């Protein structure tokens, strides 16, 4: 069986599941969101990382079905946490270029929100710079349609791509996610400190939220707070977790 065929069956058979990485406000200590990260629970090979099957799904075109499945799982899970009485949180879903170029995307998102009963403001869609720079006008159109649904958009891995700063203004983005490669050497490396501080200022100037990825140490968290970035994601706050572990993290008794 070809690997892509195997992946197609995996999507149909429910072998794709999501782990959720918590996002925290460093100032208040509140968990305000989670990023959904796909996993393939292979019957014989165990848990397979998205780094190996997302590219395969993109090449084979299966990313549309896989992406729809991920969206559905994430929205249903977020709604189910709410129904269980847990504090409201936003769920962030990663999107590939192929999904973003699909003219049925807005309808899909709208349908999944309606079917899951999740409020649009509880869904964030993460896109990358390379994705939106492929066709700027088309990206602006798709992004505008999504924001009209009430969904918010975050720019993932910010700083690693090539979008010009003037371009950023054209996109209806709510949030910049600072790539973890810049966070890794803070606060010991002055160049990285300067880059991170500049991104935080840029976000403020453009009236956007900013979140630091890959936060692993207290020293990094302290640096970020001092630099004006309150939102963080990374191993210091939590690893990607199965849904039941997220519920435990969120429960008021925790
Ligand atoms: O946990 P981590 O190894 O979980 O994720 C690796 C990469 O896979 C990340 O860059 C993330 O953006 C990507 N990824 C994870 N889940 C999805 C998904 O559902 N769709 C897409 N397009 N990318 C994903
Ligand atoms: O979409 P994105 O590329 O940002 O996906 C997040 C990826 O980063 C996942 O592979 C996740 O497991 C990984 N990750 C999350 N937090 C940390 C962290 O604190 N340190 C490192 N090195 N990787 C992280
Ligand atoms: Mn992401
Ligand atoms: Na990222």
UniProtKB/TrEMBL annotation:
Domain EAL: 1-254
Coiled-coil stretches: none
Name assigned to this protein: Diguanylate cyclase (GGDEF)-like protein/PAS domain S-box-containing protein
Protein source organism: Pseudorhizobium tarimense
């Amino acid at each position: 069986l070809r690997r892509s065929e195997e992946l197609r069956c995996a999507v149909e058979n429910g072998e794709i599941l999501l782990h959720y990485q918590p996002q925290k406000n460093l100032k208040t200590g509140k968990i305000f969101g989670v990023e959904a990260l796909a996993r393939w629970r292979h019957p014989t090979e165990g848990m397979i990382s998205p780094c190996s099957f997302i590219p395969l799904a993109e090449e084979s075109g299966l990313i549309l079905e896989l992406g729809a499945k991920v969206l559905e799982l994430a929205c249903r899970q977020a709604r189910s946490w709410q129904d269980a009485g847990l504090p409201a949180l936003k769920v962030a879903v990663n999107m590939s270029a192929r999904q973003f170029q699909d003219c049925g995307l807005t309808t899909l998102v709208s349908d999944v929100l309606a079917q899951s009963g999740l409020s649009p403001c509880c869904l964030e869609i993460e896109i990358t710079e390379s994705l939106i720079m492929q066709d700027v006008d088309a990206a602006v159109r798709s992004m505008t349609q999504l924001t009209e649904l009430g969904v918010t958009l975050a720019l993932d891995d910010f700083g690693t791509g090539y979008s010009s700063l003037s371009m950023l203004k054209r996109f209806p983005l709510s949030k910049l996610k600072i790539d973890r490669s810049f966070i890794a050497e803070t606060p010991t490396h002055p160049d990285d400190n300067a880059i991170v501080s500049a991104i935080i200022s840029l976000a403020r100037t453009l009236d956007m939220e900013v979140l630091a990825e890959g936060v692993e140490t207290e020293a990094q968290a302290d640096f970020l707070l001092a630099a004006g970035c309150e939102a963080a994601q990374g191993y210091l706050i939590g690893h990607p977790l199965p849904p039941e572990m997220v519920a435990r993290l969120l429960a008021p008794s925790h």
